[in-house]
Amino acid sequence: MPILPVATLLLFVAVVDGSPNSAVFEVQWASDLRLARPSKAMERLREPFDSALPFKNGEQRLAAKNCADLIAYRKSGFTPVSDRDAGIAQSLIVDCLAVKALYSATVPRESFLRAFHLDLHALELLPPNLAPIISDEDRQNVRSAAAKGMSWKQFDSSASASVQGESLAVISDDTRTTVKIYGRGDFNADGIDDLLVRVDTAAMHGTYRSSRLLLLTKTRRDGILRMIREFN
Fold first, then answer.
1. Which helix (H) or strand (E) holds 230?
2. Sign of the alpha-carbon dihedral angle for 30, 33, 39, 40
3. What does the domain layout of the chain look like in residue ranges?
4. Cα gap 199→180, rounded to integer Å
C-alpha cells in the first residue's frame, strides 16, 4: 500500500460484491512517523534515537536508546534527568505511542469522518479536549465542556485557526497549538473510523510546552468529533 501524507487521506471507491458504491477503507499514517507499514511497528520502536536520553528513578540511572526503551522506562516510573531531556522525551513519546497504536489498528467497516479536514472550519468540529491545558482548572473546564458536547470553538470563542501545510495552527490567548493527524483507522475495535491526532501547545511568551496524542472518533454524521482516549 502506498504511504500517503495523512492530510491527503482518501476514501477509496471500488467495486466490491457487485456494488460500485461500496467504500473501501484503509489504515493510514503520517510520513513523519517513518513507519513502512503497521506490521513493522515493533521494528520501528527499536530503531535507535540520534542520541540516548538519560532517565532516573531514585539512584538508578538508565539511558533510553529507542522508543521501546522510552515507553518502558516511563511506565516503570523513570523520569528524564533534566528539563531539556524532559522536553525532548515529551515530544518523542508522542511519535512512539502513535507507532505502537498503529500496530494494532485495523481497517474500519464504517466511517463518519469522510468530510472532515483540518481546515479553517475544523474548530467547529474538533472537541475542546485539544485546547491548551496548562492548569488543573483548565483540565476541569475542558472536561466539563466535552461532557456538554461543545466544540473547541464553542469552548473558546477567541481561538483562531490557520492551515499550515498538513497541520492546523490555533492561536488562543498567549498560546499556539498545532494539530496534525497522525493516523486513521479503527483503533478501538468497534469497526468505526478513528483519527490519531498529535497536539503540540507552546506559550508564545513563555517556556511552557506540551505534546499529546489523542484518539478522536465520530459515530454519527452530524455533530462534532469526540475524544475517546488520551495516550500516556
1. strand 226-231
2. positive
3. 39-103, 122-231
4. 7
